[in-house]
């Protein structure tokens, strides 16, 4: 079977309800059966959404004995430009910028403050397209675009050199911030 089936199901992205994602996976599995290869975007993106997608892909890989490939999500933006910058809100009052050429990271992602991002945008070549998946409120116009599952599939089918190594991990923009619990002291009761 040298047939490649690429299919995307659109549903509203609701951060409070990930069940629709699993309903879509169930629908695809029911229609096509187990996949020979599973392709997943590893971010940067929604912290929970990226972790859910990677976890589901790893679970299906084990259940179906499928090949598993990951790519940076923003390399799969649904745009026709072959050379572009992606900028986004990195939370904690910071932004990220990454340059993508032929669906491969060639620079970044770089973290910067709002002022640093404004300075970077001013210095960029005005002929290079700028994309974001959300409104950022910056002084430079940025077009809205989203990663495409179809583009991820095409990248995998073409054996794009931008694949992420296994085991897949979410592409974090900074080290995870974990607060350790304070040690509990045992209280003795006087009786």
How do you describe this structure in short?
By secondary structure, the protein is an alpha/beta fold. It is built from 4 helices and 7 strands; from the N terminus they run H-E-H-E-E-E-E-H-E-E-H.
Describe the protein's architecture and organization.
The chain starts with 18 loop residues before the first helix and ends in a 34-residue tail after the last helix. By secondary structure, it is of the alpha/beta class. The protein has a five-stranded mixed sheet with strand order 5-4-3-6-7. It has helices at 19-32, 47-64, 114-123, 149-157; strands at residues 37-41, 67-71, 83-91, 94-101, 104-112, 129-132, 143-144. The chain contains four helices and seven strands. Strand 1, helix 2 and strand 2 form a beta-alpha-beta unit.
């Amino acid at each position: 079977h040298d047939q490649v089936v690429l299919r995307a199901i659109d549903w509203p992205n609701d951060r409070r309800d990930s069940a629709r994602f699993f309903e879509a996976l169930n629908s695809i599995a029911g229609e096509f059966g187990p996949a020979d290869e599973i392709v997943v975007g590893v971010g940067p993106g929604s912290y929970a959404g990226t972790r859910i997608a990677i976890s589901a892909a790893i679970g299906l890989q084990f259940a179906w004995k499928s090949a598993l490939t990951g790519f940076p999500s923003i390399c799969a933006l649904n745009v026709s430009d072959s050379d572009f910058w992606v900028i986004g809100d990195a939370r904690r009052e910071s932004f990220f910028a990454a340059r993508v050429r032929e669906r491969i990271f060639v620079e970044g992602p770089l973290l910067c403050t709002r002022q640093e991002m404004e300075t970077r945008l001013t210095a960029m070549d005005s002929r290079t397209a700028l994309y974001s998946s959300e409104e950022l409120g910056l002084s430079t116009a940025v077009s809205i675009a989203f990663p495409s599952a179809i583009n991820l599939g095409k990248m995998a089918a073409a054996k794009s050199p931008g694949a992420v190594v296994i085991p897949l991990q979410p592409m974090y923009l900074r080290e995870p911030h974990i607060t350790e619990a304070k040690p509990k002291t045992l209280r003795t009761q006087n009786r």
